[in-house]
Amino acid sequence: MAVDDRSQARALALQALCLFEALGERFELELDSFLRDPLNYADLGWQRQPHVRTITMARELAAGAWRRREQADRLLTDNVPQWSVHRMQPVDRNILRLGLYELLEHPDRPHQVVIDEAIELAKHFGGADSGGFVNGVLDAVRKKLDALSSGSIEGS
């Protein structure tokens, strides 16, 4: 899958995560039609319909991040104690959930690529400070994950 396909999948997954948050579990029934809706592609500024593998990745990312949101929110609480997860901007919160899901569930993907992609999403969809915020949070979690995988931190 090309980098552009992965970037598109992440952008589409972010849109879906925001709808999951707004509509709840019932959005799962609408996820496939949302991911295949040409109006969403136009809203994202895409000139052509994404490849089926892009839609498949977007589905896996959105559904997986939504299912694992409680774990992600606990990690956010642990790593950003000065911010309540529910006080975060919804777009930032969902970008972080998406990034955390990828860091935890896809350790084969280079962590820096996952973080860079999340930063780009934050710059595009978030506020003026979103990119730096997302970078700081995901990098802190990445360092902890790296330390855990190398065995230098006990527990978790």
CATH architecture of the largest domain: Orthogonal Bundle
Largest sheet: none
Total number of distinct structural domains = 2
Count helical runs.
Answer: 8
CATH topology of the largest domain: N-utilizing Substance Protein B Homolog, Chain A
Oligomer state of the chains in this structure? single chain
Q: Could you name the ranges where pLDDT drops below 50 across 5 or more consecutive residues?
A: none
CATH superfamily of the largest domain: NusB-like
Summarize the helix and strand pattern as letters.
Answer: HHHHHHHH
- Spatial extent as radius of gyration: 15 Å
CATH top level assignment of the largest domain: Mainly Alpha
Overall shape: it is: globular
Q: How much of the sequence is in beta strands?
A: under 5%
- The pLDDT mean sits at 92
Q: How many extended strands?
A: 0
Q: First CA to last CA: what distance?
A: 33 Å
Architecture blueprint of SSEs:
Layout: H1 3-23, H2 31-35, H3 38-43, H4 52-67, H5 69-79, H6 90-105, H7 111-125, H8 130-149
What does it look like?
It is a single chain. With 156 residues, the protein is mainly α. It has two domains: 66 residues; 84 residues, Orthogonal Bundle (N-utilizing Substance Protein B Homolog, Chain A). Helix 1 crosses helix 4. The protein is built from eight helices and no strands.
